[in-house]
Design a protein that fits this description.
alpha/beta; Rossmann fold; 2 domains; 8-stranded mixed beta sheet; 5-stranded parallel beta sheet; 17 helices; about 20% strand; disordered C terminus; binds adenosine-5'-diphosphate; binds magnesium ion
Length: about 400
């Protein structure tokens, strides 16, 4: 039974996005599950997701958005609506209330005011969470092994659960998820974004490449120029659809905070930040982590993964990272260049090519921990004082 409130956010003002998401995600047990900016995507989201509240940012064009609100309220009478605006004139507020919004919140947002509004109207029923588990994997720097981990993690989860895992390649221009599985999908995420109107499962099935290893890949667009057809709203819709079809969806996620990526991140149950134990990578990981916190991402959803660990090599050890993030390192994956490179070159997962390797064992354990099946081993013990190095990482 969950008491978490799932929020659909309608917001056509890109510059307000970060502030709104942070304010809403910052409320107790409250999570933005989708942000959309047009009526069609909103209808699609509300049909597929059972949300506790719809929050509508009426700015910058309240009159237009009140008309939209009226249509949504008629179509989805069970979804409570909170409207918000910088405008405070009573005519506009009365108009919004008449067409179906239950609460009105003024901007700039007052946290308590927003909380009261959500508390008052949120439908709190168990089982509102979208089906499926979504795991975003982001590399703190290029080449840290995010794609390797994402692909092998999807396979290990499939193996542990006996259910097909979905993988979405959100590295729209140069993603290599399909290559990692030695697949060359004919249809991709771009084809789903070109569809007029609502997506359905048949379309998703056509675009997805099913592999014998129990992984279903939704590849990046076939060529770089096609990447521009991918929109944030469509990515959210595709992710919802995939979540309804696959128990686990792993997303190879770009290191970016554009709306496409944000939609994926906010729908994630777990965000894996992959780093290596070198100064630039740890620094970037800190920056990434801080930004996730600024966006209101709950800390317990973010996990730090150390990849390519070599004992006794380099000046930073996992315990240093733990100290800096003030949280345990979730997984440490050893370095084995030959084994990983061979597997990538042939497009074979580690499970197939190097089933007994330490790298594979660590990724399997990571999968198991994310599934909550096994007790996570605490990585290392004790702490070392490395102030000069930390000065380079965190203060420079
Ligand atoms: N645990 C590991 N041990 C050794 N090499 C690794 C490991 N993980 C990844 N690599 C290597 O790092 C390189 C980059 O991996 P990749 O997964 O493409 O990174 P990213 O997606 O973060 O750019 C590849 O050559 C891969 O073989
Ligand atoms: Mg990659």
């Amino acid at each position: 039974m969950t008491s978490e409130r799932y929020i659909a956010l309608f917001n056509a003002d890109a510059s307000a996005s970060i502030g709104l998401r942070a304010a809403i995600n910052g409320l107790p047990a409250t999570k933005v599950v989708t942000e959309v900016s047009d009526l069609e995507s909103l209808g699609d989201a509300l049909r597929r997701l059972t949300v506790s509240v719809l929050i509508v940012n009426l700015d910058p064009d309240p009159d237009r958005h009140i008309a939209l609100l009226e249509r949504v309220a008629t179509q989805f009478p069970d979804v409570p609506i909170i409207a918000m605006s910088e405008r405070t004139d009573s005519q506009m507020i009365i108009h919004a209330m008449r067409v179906g919004c239950q609460q009105f919140v003024f901007k700039p947002l007052d946290r308590d005011d927003l909380r009261r509004a959500v508390d008052r109207v949120a439908v709190s029923r168990p089982g509102l969470a979208p089906a499926g588990r979504r795991i975003c994997v982001i590399g703190a720097s290029g080449g840290v092994g995010a794609t390797t981990i994402a692909c092998n993690l999807a396979m290990e989860v499939a193996h542990l659960t006996g259910k097909t895992s979905g993988v979405m390649d959100l590295q729209l221009e140069f993603g290599d998820v399909a290559t990692s599985f030695d697949a060359a999908p004919q249809y991709t995420l771009a084809n789903l974004c070109e569809v007029d109107g609502e997506l359905d499962q048949v379309m998703l099935d056509t675009a997805i490449t099913r592999l014998s290893c129990n992984v279903a890949v939704l590849g990046r667009p076939r060529n770089v120029a096609e990447a521009h057809v991918v929109t944030a709203d469509r990515v959210a819709a595709v992710l919802r659809l995939m979540s309804n079809c696959y128990d686990t969806v792993v997303i190879d996620t770009p290191r970016s905070f554009d709306r496409i990526t944000l939609n994926a991140l906010e729908m994630a149950d777990h965000v894996l930040v992959v780093l290596q134990l070198i100064v630039p990578s740890v620094r970037n990981a800190v920056r990434l982590y801080q930004t996730l916190m600024d966006y209101g991402m709950p800390d317990d959803r973010v996990h730090i993964i150390v990849n390519r660990f070599r004992k006794g090599v380099g000046s930073i050890i996992p315990e240093d990272v733990q100290q800096q993030f003030r949280k345990d390192v979730f997984a440490v994956i050893p370095n084995d260049y030959q084994c990983v490179t061979n597997s990538l070159d042939f497009g074979h997962p580690l499970m197939a090519d190097a089933p007994n390797s330490a790298v594979r064992a660590s990724i399997r354990e990571l999968a198991s921990d994310l599934l909550g099946d096994e007790q996570r081993e605490v990585v290392g013990a004790g702490a070392r004082n490395k102030s000069s190095l930390f000065g380079r990482i965190f203060n420079a």
